[in-house]
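User: I've been going back and forth on whether these two constructs are worth ordering. Before I decide, could you fold them both?

Assistant: Sure. I'll take them in the order you sent them. The first construct and its structure tokens:
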Amino acid sequence: MRTELVIKKGDSPSKLLDVVRQYAKKYPNGVSISIEPYCLPRTKAQNNTYQLWVKRASEQTGIPTDLLKQMAKDKAVGYGYPVERDEDGEPIMKYGKFVPISSKDATIGQIKILMEQVRIIALDHDVVLEDVKG
């Protein structure tokens, strides 16, 4: 059993204590608790830019958008982009590769990693992503 609890600024630490007590009762041999900082989800501006870059790269290369997104995610995993995990917290693999999380679930930092990979794919194919103003 795995539980994810998000405690936000201003929340009472007693929420965490309640969950720990529940686990301690259920698992008398002990529990493992990991604490990590909460990260903000991607911004609307990041999402818009990501979608625009994928669209432009797809149009100029002929690579379908779904395939382009998957290519970027697969590359991004090597740079810290997170992967899907099972109920035990183990990474999920499909066809011998880790399954990256959906970009919808990406945080601000994670979407930056993904966008960088889209940019690199575009550069490799001589795609212009940003408008040139003159």
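The second construct, handled the same way:
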Amino acid sequence: MDKSPINRTRLPVHDRSIPLPVEEAKLEIEKNRVRRWLYILGGTVSLALALLGIIVPGLPVTPLALLAAILYARSSEKLYNRLLNNRILGPRIKSYQRRKGVTRRGKVGIIAFMTMMVLFSSFVVIKIIPLRIVILSLGLIGMVVVWFFVPTAKDDPVKSPEEKAQLPS
């Protein structure tokens, strides 16, 4: 057994995920072969864009990963499970599913980042006035959509420090 000081300082990890009832966990796989392949194609494109969004600032990762999960859930149980078990995108998707949305703090962060990227694009990169107006308008629409139409997450089941201390090890 390794007796390095690193292993002794690790805190126990608690799984706070909420198990879904069997009825909610069932996937609705499309029966039509053509539609299923179109869902797979759409999910793959969305997943590729989500992975690109990790590198490219301004390209949203989580919404594209959620779209890929939805499309894979309708087309292939194997692809859906592989996406959920991905170490980079899986936790984001599971968190959204568990909480049924994005927290208010997350929404504020998303809107702040969108604002910075839109303003930077509009006033530093783009020199054509009509294009600036289009980008600013789309940015404003995006902010309204995030704040009013993206579901606000339910709080985690564990709220107080006393309740956290009562979690089993």
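Notes on the second construct follow. The chain has a mean pLDDT of 75. The two ends are 21 Å apart (CA to CA).
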